[in-house]
Amino acid sequence: MLRLSGVSGLSIAVEARSVVKVFANIRALDGLGFSVHAGEIFGLIGPNGAGKTTALRIISTLLLPTSGNLRVFDLDVVQKAAEVRKIITYLPEEAGAYPNLSGREYLEFMAKFTTKNKDELREMVKEAAEICGLGERLKDRAKTYSKGMKRRLLVARALMSKPKLAVLDEPTSGLDVLHSYHVREIIKRYVREHGVTVVLSSHNMLEVEHLCERVSLLNRGKIVAEGEPKQLKEKFGSANLEEVFAKVVGFA
Amino acid sequence: MLKGFGNFLIKELKELMRDPKILIGMIIIPVLMFPILGAVMSFSMQSAQESASKTTVLVLNRDNGEDSVQFIAFLNSSLKAILVSVSTIDDAVPLLSKYNATEIIEIPSDFSQNVTARTPVYVGFYSVFSGAGLVEGIGSSIVDTLVQRFNRDVAPDVIVPRQSVIIKGKVVDGVSLQVLSSLMISQAIALPITMMILLTYSMQIAATSVAMEKEEKTLETVLTLPMDRFAILMGKLSGSIIVAGVSAVAYMFGFNYYLGSVSGFASGGSSVDLASLGLVPSFLGYLLLGVSLFVTLLSALALAVILSAFAENVRSAQSLVSYVYLLVFIPSFVLMYLDINALPVWLRVVLYAIPYSHPIIASKAVTMGDYLTAGLGIVYVTAFTLIIMYVASRLFATEKILTAKLRFRGLRKGSKTPVEEMG
């Protein structure tokens, strides 16, 4: 079980300063800077290729920043990568499950990285089963699951260990309206009940508006606007975040 | 006519043939491999035959007559016969290495008497067994041919050869070198074939398991788990070794049965017990062979893991590892029939440099009691494996495992830039 001891007083969960990521000759992130408060749901939103996934991958220690600095609960993601991995979970946008393991086996496999205690492990898997709502289908191999079922399993995996920080890349990708609603409610509940901090990305700006307390609008690797959805809408005199984004990047 | 079949087939061929990894792995490598293999084999056989024409034999002449002198002169016309005067065959054995000879011929005291009378006379032929594979018998068969020619010139079957072999410096009576060599070759085929199957199989498993993580999009999740990245690599390698090991045991079981049934026919009436001749490895020999096989397997698997890190999916991972098959197949085929010491120096250097040659070299070396060669091979392959493992662990420790990709510029158009994939 992950503990919050010693860091509960910290109010900053993620802090990015002038983060640059260059692939070959392309600057995927160009001086990215933002901060996420502990216990909030923070959204990185922007169009495809804006750099959302690259930013989330750097937070999750998968990629190294070319320059700049990024800290998760005061741990540097480059210097203290192993420590960071102990307090986060990451849900990639196109993640899959092992096709020849059953849903339950997959959850048990993942839970064993968090706890060695059998009771805790059982409790964690039970909780994940409730989150994903797959019921008896958890006994079936993952290769028999639909895209939506697989996504629900993976969201459950990312939340079941109650990490300090859950990094969710397009969490409702591939889910229908009802299941998307279900997953959003679960995320909200986890933040409220367990103090989990969530950083998520989405290009569905309407969804983010309902879910996130604060958002950063990302375009071409840079933050172009940041704040509470309500404040941003007021500031730009827009009906929704899509309009805000269009105005900021000069489409409208 | 199947509706849509032609259209679909064309799409399929375009898809397959435009993948340069498939083009190279499945078409160019096999096309190159067998001509290379053929050239190596024929060159090796040629050079072995050339060296055999310089065959040297030691002659122990216990006869004082003229016919034995004539017989020795006859042998000298085609090979180098050196007269030695020692009292027993055992005393002559140490002289073999001194004169670089491969055979001792013992002419009995009644040789001239019998040849003059045209009555059969038994002549002792003691051939050195060195485990050199197909070329082993060349020197000995030249002597056989000369004896037959002598018999034709003088009288049918006047010289009756009494064949014996010298194994590891000890004379074993009543065993023909040809029978022994062919039996040893049939035994020696088992290991290279097992090696080929085991290595190619396990490399496929290792490469597939990494590529599957990429294809099924599970690798990213795994890399963010609170676990040692080296543990992921070792988990992959160990899993592949266990599966490959089970398959090797199953394979050896079947192959042993096959070998048993074949040699039952091949040996016919001649009963040659290799164990009693000391031609099976000792416990230490088996141990060295096992270690050699293990480190070679580990190096092959680590190499497969590295290669598969550059593949986007299972298909391209399998094509990538097939490039390495050339390095597995050539030593296996060459060393299946020929001894490394019978090969030209440059080829020996090439084969010693390929790590996958060493278990095969070790299997012959330990049978002949040469533990040093097996030991040095293990040291070399271990060093190679450590370097490969280090590279593999670096690959897993960094973002390269996600971002590395082999690019065939010019061949593949419209390939994705990293930023497109990174989002």
Q: Would you write up a description of this structure?
A:
The complex is a heterodimer of chains A (252) and B (423). Chain A has helices spanning 52-59, 81-87, 103-111, 118-132, 147-160, 177-194, 205-211, 229-236, 241-248; strands at residues 12-23, 26-37, 41-45, 67-72, 75-76, 88-91, 165-169, 197-202, 214-219, 222-227. With 252 residues, chain A is an alpha/beta fold. Chain A has a domain at 12-96 and 164-248: Rossmann fold (3-Layer(aba) Sandwich), CATH 3.40.50.300. The longest helix of chain A has 18 residues, at 177-194. Chain A is globular, with a radius of gyration of 18 Å. Chain B has 423 residues and is α/β, with parallel strands linked by helices. In chain B, a hairpin with a 2-residue loop joins strand 5 and strand 6 (170-173). Chain B folds into two domains: 21-48 and 179-415, no CATH class; 53-175, abc type-2 transporter like fold (3-Layer(aba) Sandwich). In chain B, helix 3 (66-78) packs across helix 6. Classes of the chains: A alpha/beta (252), B alpha/beta (423). Chains A and B meet through helix 1, helix 2 and strand 6 of A and helix 8 and helix 17 of B.
- Average pLDDT of chain B, rounded to a whole number, is 79
Report low-confidence residues of chain A grouped into runs of 5 or more. Answer: 1-10
Largest sheet of chain A: 6 strands, mixed
Order of helices and strands of chain B: HHEHEHEHEHEEHHHHHHHHHHH
**Overall pLDDT of chain A:** 88
Helix content of chain A: 25-40%
Query: Helicity range of the residues of chain B?
Result: 55-70%
Q: Which structural category do the helix and sheet elements of chain B fall into? A: alpha/beta
What integer value in Å does the Rg of chain B equal?
28 Å
Which of globular, elongated, flat, extended, rod-shaped describes the shape of chain A? globular
Identify the overall geometry of chain B: elongated
Count of DSSP-assigned helices of chain B: 17
**Record field, number of beta strands of chain A:** 10
- Sheet with most strands: strand arrangement of chain B: 2-1-3-4-5-6
Q: Give the SSE order of chain A as H and E letters.
A: EEEHEEHEHHHEHEHEEHH
